[in-house]
Design goal:
By secondary structure, the chain is an alpha+beta fold. The chain is 49% helix and 14% strand. Strands 1, 2, 3, 4, 5, 6 and 7 form a 7-stranded antiparallel beta sheet that branches. The radius of gyration is 31 Å and the shape is elongated.
């Protein structure tokens, strides 16, 4: 108990420098001081890792922190400081949009000033569109720009798929639907055709045209369940399943526009033609 009292006396008489730090006069001051010390570790990580502030400028950060904590509320200044913080987020948004538009082309970037002008117009009510209308316009413009960039990066992938489809449709037993879907019956099922309300259990293996297997329920020994009310699978699968009686096993070759199109799905690159072995169990 005596040792604790001595320690408390020592800490409460700490006198700090002339930069605005306070002298610890009592136990509550000591408590507040300790609170600041132990919270500072998390703040340090946030400042350097999340905010990206160089440690060389930590004194400038501390100056702003003290000003923000000690000064009386000033709505005008608080609005400005909040704008600075949001501006940093918008800078990050510009980088994300640049990636969406230009991909890995580091020589190009979205004009941050133009992005900011859009924010300003929206905040001040100078653009007559609703947020939903502007969002739809944004997506309508982004899609062709993004697909043009993807075509530049993955056009060879699309061409290879088209070449494969042209050769595959000439193979014995391969049939082609109006949509361009290709299929070959491996096992003719004698069960019922699925309806829009059916729940199916299927086994499958998915491959790229180079033979790379990217997914397989056979390997997991776990059939896949599909509710035809909300299939949640690519269009090529839905079309094939509606033609497959229970007990069927088909090889289905799906053009990229009936698969994932311009989407990048990990091992499935944009514009990939896909080959599935699909078995409808029940």
């Amino acid at each position: 108990m005596m040792a604790a009292a001595v320690a408390m006396t020592a800490i409460t008489t700490i006198s700090c420098d002339n930069n605005g730090s306070a002298t610890l006069n009592d136990g509550v001051d000591s408590l507040a001081y300790d609170c600041g010390v132990f919270q500072s570790e998390g703040l340090k990580q946030y400042v350097t890792m999340q905010l990206g502030i160089d440690s060389a400028y930590i004194d400038d950060f501390i100056k702003g922190m003290k000003e923000g904590a000690m000064n009386e509320a000033d709505p005008k200044k608080e609005a400005y400081l909040s704008g600075l913080a949001v501006g940093k987020d918008i800078s990050g948004m510009a980088k994300t949009l640049t990636q969406q538009v230009y991909g890995d082309d580091s020589t190009k970037s979205v004009n941050v000033k133009v992005l900011l002008s859009g924010f300003e117009a929206g905040l001040k009510g100078k653009d007559s569109r609703t947020a939903e209308q502007a969002y739809n316009d944004f997506n309508a413009k982004l899609k062709p720009v993004r697909e043009a960039q993807l075509m530049k990066d993955f056009g060879d992938n699309k061409a290879a798929g088209e070449k494969y489809l042209a050769a595959n449709k000439k193979k014995e037993g391969v049939k082609v639907t109006k949509s361009g879907l290709q299929y070959k019956v491996l096992v003719e099922g004698d069960g019922a055709l699925p309806t829009d309300s059916s729940i199916l259990k299927v086994n499958y293996e998915g491959k790229l045209i180079d033979g790379t297997v990217f997914d397989s329920s056979y390997e997991r020994n776990m059939p896949f369940e599909i509710n035809m009310r909300m299939p949640g699978v690519i269009d090529g699968w839905v079309e094939a399943l509606k033609m497959m009686p229970a007990g069927s096993k088909w090889e289905v070759t799906i053009p990229q526009d009936l698969a994932y199109g311009a989407q990048n799905q990990g091992p499935i690159k944009p514009f990939s033609t896909l080959i599935f072995t699909i078995e409808v169990l029940k």
